[in-house]
Amino acid sequence: MARGDWSRAVDLARDYTSRHRDDWRGWLVQGNATLRRGGSDNAYRVAAVIAFRRATQLAPDRPEVWDGYGRAGLELGGADGESIVHDAYERVMALAPLYPGAWKNWLKAYRSRADRERLLHILGRHDSIPEVRAHIAQLLIENEHYRRADALLDSLLRLDSLQPEWLALRAQSAFESGDTTNGSEFYARALAHADRPGGEMLWHQAIGIATPGEIRAWQAGIPASERPGFMRSFWARRNPDLFAAINERIAEHFARLRVARREFQDTHPLSGYENRPLTRALYAKPSIAEQIFYQRCEAQQYPGGPRSAADQSRLPSAMGTLVGGGEDILAHERWAHGIQPPGYLDLEPDSVNIGLLDMPYGRDIRDIDTTAAAMGYNVRTGLDDRGLTYLRFGPPRRRIIGSPNVDDQFCQLPELEHWEYDDIGDVRFFLPEAVNAGAMAGWSTTGDEVYRPMNERQFDATELVMTRDRTSIPAPLQFGVWTAQFADLADSGLSDVLVTSTRGELAAALDGTLSPGDASINRSGMAELHSKPGRYMLLSQAQDSGVLGRQSIPIIVRSFKHLPAVSDMLLAPAWSGGTPTRAGMLAHLQRTLVFAQGSTIRTYLEIYGLRSDSGMVRYQVVYQWVRTDHPERDLQLTSWPGATRLGFQRERAAAPRGSEIETLDIVPAQLPRGRYLLRVGIQDLLAGLSAGYSSIAFEVR
User: Fold this and answer.
1) In 193-346, at which residue ranges do the beta strands (DSSP E only) sit?
2) pLDDT tens digits, residue range 449-493?
3) Boundary (domain end) residue, out of 505, 524, 558
4) Is the dihedral of CA 110, 111, 114, 117 positive or negative?
5) Comparing C-alpha atoms, which of 547, 679, 580 is closest to residue 624?
6) Which of 39, 102, 226, 442 has the CA that lies 20 to 30 A from 485?
7) How far is CA 324 from CA 301, 327, 350, 369, 607, in A?
């Protein structure tokens, strides 16, 4: 075994146990070697279970033999595996409550309220151990005994007030019981100390709503020192109201979790479909029986034709094979009613052309999110796919149980659900083994209703609910947002990002994977953020007359260290006075970038790092603007035929901080009504280098 020669180890162990049948150590080695060797079918799992079971009979007081038995049960899976896991790890924790992996492995199996109560009784014998008391508190939270959980956790926090796992559980208990004030306080403390042992609990609590990218980032290895920043960023990206003092999305998450755990617990987490990526891949595509059910019970409305173009494309070939030449389906149904159970259909021999029934667009659930399929959301959360959807998006606007075809006995299945969400669409859940069509049974692999989209619209909706999440707090305000970047003259390692909303007050923040930014709130609709260069998510929210709006935009914060360089551009109606400054431009800035006809438009940008000679700088600036009916397209062009072009050579005393201001007033005669693109390019004449260019779009009405 030390060399990894598992087959040889199995042979030696079998030989030994055949001669020493009462030595538990031999059976333990045989079970371990059998599990590690694996196999192409289920036989090795059964062999390991038998070996470990014999070891438990010979040494019932040894926790390692029960641990082996439990690991074999996890590998076996299914209902038998779940029964073994419960039996094995309850024995382990009765003997050694902190045995490595015992608690985590027990959590992987289905646990009812009675299962939790039974383990509470077992762990209660060891409640003098702080870690065991934390496990007891978690079970009490799951059984919604919040006051008892709070008392236990408060006693633990008196021992160590900074332990993040205990703080996170205390926060969860408060949030689930509706105490958002204490929940927010405890959760903030847990986040602050997430770098300590036990900080993984914060990820465990939140993983059900994580995006594929966040999951991959965590699995790649987040150092303990960076866990607080990672989790702060996780929640910052989901903050529904940057104007509020607390992040209401956290409280909403735990409130949803309570409902999802109660109503949509995963009853078969060790099934092959949910616990083994290979099995999930094999059975990701709906069976022929499922497709027959869909085409007969869902793809058509009564009376009339199919619901959508995607459904319509299926019917002529697939249903025509079943009812004879594609003639009227309702008039020529020949299936018997009333003598077989719902979901069971007897077909005449050779009546189904499997090739014609196959999915015409060739998609299955693996096309949506391989990350989710590989890591197993269900096992990590204890929720079925409906529970995950509830956790991510909350209750649906409409929940339909069963088929719309109420006249056909074959279609009367409660194991079919459609959840409808505004702006998402129809999410379809189905229990695959609920239908049988002759020998073409549904896959007996899940035991739970799972995501089962059957047309393109359902695929689109399922992709959204599997890869994203959303708050239920409304934000209907429509607004625009644009940015302009400048060098931070006080700190060369930072950049200034001006964020401007087209209406209302503005709250904005730059969120990185490991570095959440503090929100900047500005009543005039302009927020200035300071950040290191890099990739971020710009979180911008506007508020007007108490109505909230939200936008999230990927952004790259530029570096201005490579000189010469040029900032982004600002536009404002011209005003009388001295040389424009950044502060002066911000005071007059046109937030909507829409100017009244007849206005003189003032442009402003900054140039950094021009070479000086005897205290003087010389550069060439070229302005060009063009009317356009498609700014996004024309912005990508390197030249604009027909553009108005103005060029100047500037020579002036070098600015003390190396930041030159370039400004021009464009008079009304040059700007009739229309949409425009403006581009300004800078050339350092002393260095012979280009400083780059800046572009902006605006409108004259």
Assistant:
1) 344-345
2) 988 988 888 988 988 898 899 999 999 999 999 999 999 988 888
3) 558
4) positive
5) 679
6) 226
7) 20, 6, 12, 38, 77
Are 232 and 363 a contacting pair, CB within 8 Å?
A: no
Name the residue with higher pLDDT: 335 or 78: 78
Q: Are residues 551 and 612 in the same domain?
A: no
Q: Whole domain around residue 98: which residue ranges?
A: 1-109
Instruction: Give per-residue pLDDT as tens, 399-451.
Output: 999 988 888 888 888 999 999 999 899 999 999 888 876 656 666 677 889 88
Integer Cα distance of 120 and 94 in angstroms: 11
Contact 101, 67 (CB under 8 A): yes
Same domain, 62 and 96: yes
Q: Could you tell me if 487 and 571 lie in one domain?
A: no
Q: What is the DSSP string of 17-50?
A: HHH-TT-HHHHHHHHHHHHHH--SSTHHHHHHHH
Give residue 694's pLDDT.
Answer: 96
Kindly tell me if the per-residue pLDDT of 135 is higher than 80.
yes
84-111 average pLDDT score: 96
Last residue of a domain, one of 416, 441, 467: 467
Find all residues with CB under 8 Å of 688, minimum gap 6, and list them.
none
Spatial separation of the C-alpha atoms in residues 406 and 423, rounded to whole Å: 28
Q: Is 59 left (phi over 0), alpha (psi -120 to 50) or beta?
A: beta
pLDDT category, 327, cuts 50, 70, 90?
very low
CB of 152 within 8 A of CB of 140?
A: yes
Residues 580 and 554 both lie in one domain: no
pLDDT digits (tens, 9 = 90+) for 38-53: 987 889 999 999 999 9
Are residues 653 and 544 both part of a single domain? no
The confidence score (pLDDT) of residue 354 equals: 43
Q: Give the CATH number of the domain where residue 17 resides.
A: 1.25.40.10
Number of domains composing the chain: 4
Gyration radius of the chain over CA positions = 33
Q: What is the CATH number of the domain that holds 589?
A: 2.60.40.10
